[in-house]
């Protein structure tokens, strides 16, 4: 326990990275996933086909490989993130949102979006037929049917699966640690290396922080679900 | 298992050759020939570890597999190549074991695990760019050094960085868990951990990070591959003395390792190996370093 | 629900508009693919030297035997152990005794919330130096704990999904609790759970790639040897491309098996709904 107190600042900084990775990739994946879901249920065959291909490709690729792609291959095709260079000074060290961080966020976003898309699509399928039919009957076009009627209800039906996808994302941020972002996993590895005798304490401590973060997320999702439930 | 592998090889080869021109990667090596001594009876004193190993005819080595020039392996089953590996092979051969045979177990030893490997007897020797330090000598035995090197900086060819001092507060890449990474932070730069040095070099070329830093010998090897896109700069800001690791339980191994290394220094094998793996075109190999005295045992 | 419920059958004007969109989208997609290929070409990523290992027998053998085979071995050992773990803790969570239920619940919740990477590093350090098998077991055990925790939930839900009358009838015949569980409930539950089980295999297979942080054998290990070999001139991109493709093919095969098993043994209807804290693989839920 003393070890944690002694390194509290470094650990807090590491989890700041974890949370930032999660927030950026979480928002990004929701937006991209919604667009993909719209593509997959929409009327234009090319887009439907592209959306399906995307989901199948990305879902079956290990996350590590997706992120490595953005870290190594993307710069070769001029897809660089060097324009991102924000240093947030904190009392305990700088939080650096740089090109490496951005590449990892993009990788996590691309990966998670495929799962968001699938969760939403199953949500769209769960919306009663009559809703879409009624929307069409009053003359709404596809975009109107989706944004005004179907998607709002789909979101409601998909809160639990979406929450699961986002929880998986939170845990997946550790993969960015293996590719150059100094987040929680990197810090734990370093601490274990320097204090091999404290292996159990360190692991259980870091694991419990993750358990707490996960529980916070599922608590929020339960509250959201309660609030928007139609009874 | 062997039989199945042969079958699969044949099938794979057939497939590959039918699809396209047949590649022949992975079949050249210009390391010096090392062949096993043939008479070890009575060569080592009874009860020494060397006698035991020679008697058993088997040995396990901890080495690197992804550091070109030092320790690098083509496929998981092949015998690794490199300067570190050649030193290990000399030692193996001195025990009358054929270094190319299956009697040698090559195991990847990471920075994190080298000491434990030796302490627990998983490997008999470590030849893995193993810097000699006082902390490590508390835990394991280290003989040598057989190479001296120091940490330098690798930057893009058009960079005006001249040494680590120009990189205060900038990101500098090095391998995860390495001493190099700690040294970078100690010099005031921001360390970026990476899975491998090859990946670091790629990041430098891409402009993802302004520089990377580790032992000069590794950097020179990387710079050679990028053909003028990058350069090695700056004075060495650390001194690394690379040696062979052995278990503290067998202090008698120190003198034996030193004897074998001395012989290699004198008969030119050391120089030949250095030139084959680390030497740049038209550059002389340096003088072999002076070995540390072994504590009387 | 098919997509057509969301939009009307297009009239002539809508059709014209859709055609424009189709062409625009098509052009955009093709253009971006072409751009990527051209840029890679300009970067020399298609040079023979960089692709040579993937047409050389020595390396193809290494990729297949030391790569694919080892990866599959790790994934399947992990899944087999995870099934055992899942059965024990899934049944434990259903126990009537609070002293058995709560610890099982805690263990399952813990391992579902802990990132696999953290568990892997922990087990790797814990196993320490058990020769070169320690990275292998670090991967297998970490995946066992995570997938086992997810499967425990699947088992619990599966057993709950067996109609109540089945257990009641068995009790009426005078069977004991263990008997009811082993001979009546489990066999029926397994049938319901098969698709979820196989899609968990996909998750496990993908996660074996994380093993590269503990230097585990398998595809990522062979890949590391290939791209750090100077002979091939820094061929990270071709290597990542090849390894990614292999993973995709393996996973598509597994998914195809899952679909087939589902059709063959379960039928279209009965779908198991499990709230998964872990990686929510939508293919675990059958299409409605």
Automatic annotation (TrEMBL), chain A:
GO terms for biological process: amino acid transport. Pfam families: BPD_transp_1. It is found in: Cell membrane. The chain crosses the membrane at residues 12-41, 53-74, 95-116, 199-220. Keywords: Amino-acid transport, Cell membrane, Membrane, Transmembrane, Transmembrane helix, Transport. GO terms for cellular component: ATP-binding cassette (ABC) transporter complex. Gene3D superfamilies: MetI-like (1.10.3720.10). InterPro entries: AA_ABC_transptr_permease_3TM, ArtM/GltK/GlnP/TcyL/YhdX-like, MetI-like, MetI-like_sf. It is a multi-pass membrane protein. The keyword Cell membrane applies. One of its GO terms (molecular function) is transmembrane transporter activity. Residues 15-221 form the ABC transmembrane type-1 domain. Belongs to the binding-protein-dependent transport system permease family. HisMQ subfamily. This is Glutamate ABC transporter permease. It comes from Nocardioides silvaticus.
UniProtKB/TrEMBL annotation, chain B:
It holds the Pfam family SBP_bac_3. GO terms for biological process: amino acid transport. The keyword Transport applies. Residues 1-23 form the signal peptide. The keyword Transport applies. Residues 58-281 form the Solute-binding protein family 3/N-terminal domain. PROSITE patterns: PROKAR_LIPOPROTEIN. Keywords: Signal, Transport. InterPro entries: Bact_solute-bind_prot3, Solute-binding_3/MltF_N. One of its GO terms (cellular component) is outer membrane-bounded periplasmic space. PANTHER family: ABC TRANSPORTER GLUTAMINE-BINDING PROTEIN GLNH, AMINO ACID ABC TRANSPORTER PERMEASE. Belongs to the bacterial solute-binding protein 3 family. This is Glutamate ABC transporter.
From TrEMBL, chain C:
The chain crosses the membrane at residues 20-38, 74-92, 104-124, 136-159, 180-198, 210-227, 239-261. The keyword Membrane applies. It comes from the Bacteria. GO terms for cellular component: ATP-binding cassette (ABC) transporter complex. GO terms for molecular function: transmembrane transporter activity. It is found in: Cell membrane. Keywords: Cell membrane, Membrane, Transmembrane, Transmembrane helix, Transport. The keyword tRNA processing does not apply. Its main location: membrane. Residues 68-258 form the ABC transmembrane type-1 domain. CDD domains: TM_PBP2 (cd06261). It is a multi-pass membrane protein. GO terms for biological process: amino acid transport. Belongs to the binding-protein-dependent transport system permease family. PANTHER family: AMINO ACID ABC TRANSPORTER PERMEASE (PTHR30614:SF21), MEMBRANE COMPONENT OF AMINO ACID ABC TRANSPORTER (PTHR30614). NCBIfam families: HEQRo_perm_3TM (TIGR01726). This is Amino acid ABC transporter permease. The lineage of its organism: Bacteria, Bacillati, Actinomycetota, Actinomycetes, Propionibacteriales.
């Amino acid at each position: 326990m003393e070890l944690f107190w002694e390194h509290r600042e470094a650990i807090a900084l590491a989890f700041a990275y974890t949370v930032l990775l999660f927030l950026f990739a979480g928002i990004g994946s929701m937006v991209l996933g919604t667009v993909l879901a719209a593509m997959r249920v929409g009327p234009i065959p090319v887009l439907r086909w592209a959306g399906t291909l995307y989901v199948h490709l990305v879902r079956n690729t290990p996350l590590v490989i997706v992120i490595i792609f953005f870290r190594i291959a993307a710069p070769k095709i001029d897809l660089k993130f060097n324009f991102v260079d924000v240093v947030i000074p904190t009392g305990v060290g700088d939080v650096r949102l740089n090109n490496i961080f951005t590449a990892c966020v993009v990788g996590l976003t691309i990966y998670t979006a495929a799962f968001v898309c699938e969760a939403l699509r199953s949500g769209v399928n769960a919306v009663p037929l009559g809703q879409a039919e009624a929307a069409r009957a009053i003359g709404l076009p596809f975009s109107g049917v989706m944004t005004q009627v179907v998607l709002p209800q789909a979101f409601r039906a998909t809160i639990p699966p979406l929450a699961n996808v986002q929880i998986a994302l939170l845990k997946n941020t550790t993969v960015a640690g293996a590719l150059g972002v100094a987040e929680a996993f990197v810090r734990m590895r370093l601490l274990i290396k320097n204090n091999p005798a404290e292996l159990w304490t360190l692991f259980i401590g870091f694991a419990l922080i993750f358990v707490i973060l996960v529980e916070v997320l599922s608590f929020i999702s339960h509250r959201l679900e309660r609030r928007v439930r139609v009874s | 298992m062997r039989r199945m592998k042969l079958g699969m090889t044949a099938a794979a080869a057939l497939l590959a050759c039918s699809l396209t021109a047949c590649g022949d990667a992975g079949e050249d090596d210009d390391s010096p020939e090392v062949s096993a001594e043939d008479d070890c009876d009575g060569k080592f004193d009874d009860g020494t570890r060397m006698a035991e190993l020679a008697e058993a005819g088997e040995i396990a080595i901890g080495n690197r597999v992804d550091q070109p020039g030092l320790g690098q392996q083509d496929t998981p089953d092949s015998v690794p190549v490199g300067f570190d590996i050649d030193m290990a092979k000399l030692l193996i051969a001195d025990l009358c074991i054929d270094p190319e045979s299956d009697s040698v177990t090559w195991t990847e030893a990471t920075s994190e695990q080298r000491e434990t490997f030796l302490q627990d007897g998983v490997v008999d020797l470590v030849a893995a760019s193993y810097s000699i330090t006082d902390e490590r000598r508390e835990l394991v035995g280290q003989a040598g050094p057989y190479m001296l090197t120091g940490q330098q900086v690798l930057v893009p060819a058009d960079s005006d960085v001249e040494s680590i001092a120009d990189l205060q507060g900038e990101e500098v890449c090095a391998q995860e868990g390495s001493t190099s990474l700690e040294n970078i932070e100690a010099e005031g730069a921001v360390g970026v951990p990476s899975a491998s040095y090859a990946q670091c070099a790629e990041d430098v070329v891409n402009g993802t990070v302004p520089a990377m830093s580790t032992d000069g010998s590794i950097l020179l090897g990387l710079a050679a591959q990028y053909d003028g896109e990058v350069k090695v700069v700056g004075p060495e800001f650390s001194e690394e003395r690379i040696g062979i690791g052995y278990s503290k339980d067998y202090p008698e191994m120190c003198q034996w390792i030193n004897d074998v290394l001395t012989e290699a220094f004198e008969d030119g094998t050391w120089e030949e190996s250095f030139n084959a793996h680390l030497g740049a075109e038209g550059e002389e190999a340096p003088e072999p370093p002076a070995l540390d005295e072994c504590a009387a045992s | 629900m098919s997509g057509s419920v969301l939009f009307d059958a297009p009239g002539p004007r809508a059709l014209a508009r859709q055609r424009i969109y189709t062409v625009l989208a098509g052009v955009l997609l093709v253009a971006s693919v072409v751009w990527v290929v051209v840029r890679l070409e300009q970067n020399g990523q298609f040079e023979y030297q960089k692709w040579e290992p993937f047409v050389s027998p020595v390396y193809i053998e290494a990729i297949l035997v030391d790569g694919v085979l080892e990866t599959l071995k790790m994934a399947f050992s992990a899944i087999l152990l995870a099934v055992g773990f899942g059965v024990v803790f899934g049944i434990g969570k259903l126990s009537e005794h609070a002293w058995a239920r709560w610890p099982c619940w805690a263990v399952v919740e813990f391992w579902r919330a802990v990132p696999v990477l953290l568990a892997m590093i922990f087990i790797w350090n814990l196993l320490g130096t058990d020769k070169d098998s320690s990275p292998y077991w670090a991967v297998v055990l970490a995946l066992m704990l995570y997938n086992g925790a997810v499967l425990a939930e699947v088992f619990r839900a599966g057993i709950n999904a067996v109609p109540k009358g089945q257990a009641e009838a068995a009790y009426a015949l005078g069977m004991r609790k263990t008997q009811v569980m082993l001979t009546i409930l489990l066999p029926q539950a397994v049938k319901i759970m098969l698709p979820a089980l196989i899609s968990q295999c996909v998750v496990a297979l993908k996660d074996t790639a994380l093993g590269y942080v503990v230097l585990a054998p398998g595809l990522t290990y062979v890949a590391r040897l290939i791209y750090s070999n100077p002979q091939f001139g820094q061929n990270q991109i071709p290597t990542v491309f090849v390894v990614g493709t292999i993973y995709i093919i393996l996973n598509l095969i597994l998914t195809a098996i899952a679909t087939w098993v589902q059709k063959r043994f379960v039928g279209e209807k009965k779908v198991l709904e499990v709230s998964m804290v872990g990686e929510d693989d939508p293919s675990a839920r059958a299409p409605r």
